[in-house]
Amino acid sequence: MGARRRSILAILAFLMLMGIAVYFRLWAIHYNISSDDTHLLRQQFDIANREAMDESAEWRLRYDKEVDRTKKCLHELQVLRDSSQKGDVASGINHKLAILQKENAVLLERLETLKRELEEERLKCSSRNMN
What we know:
By secondary structure, the protein is mainly α. It has one domain (about 1-130). The protein has helices at about 1-85, 90-130. The longest helix is centred in the N-terminal third of the chain and has 84 residues, at about 1-85. It is rod-shaped and about 125 Å long. Keywords: Coiled coil, Membrane, Transmembrane, Transmembrane helix.
């Protein structure tokens, strides 16, 4: 009876050691996968961040170009107004003034549209960065 009890205890101890070994092996595999996931997530975040910065720079460039065009039109409009006040008004100048005013109105609308689009893109970028 004593030899049987010892063999059962020996088998039980062996099985416990094997269970512990399997547990540590699974834990090591899980740890490696988790550290790889962290590295992968960091890389994806860096890529997304770079893309958002590039897109933001592109929208800023478009906005700046539209602002410059609008300023140029406003300057031409002011020059025409100043010259018309001096008495140098001719039908060609009035026609050009009307065209510039229409173009200025279109450009101002476009500028407002770009401002809204820029704000929407900023909100998208900030929501991506939050996630």
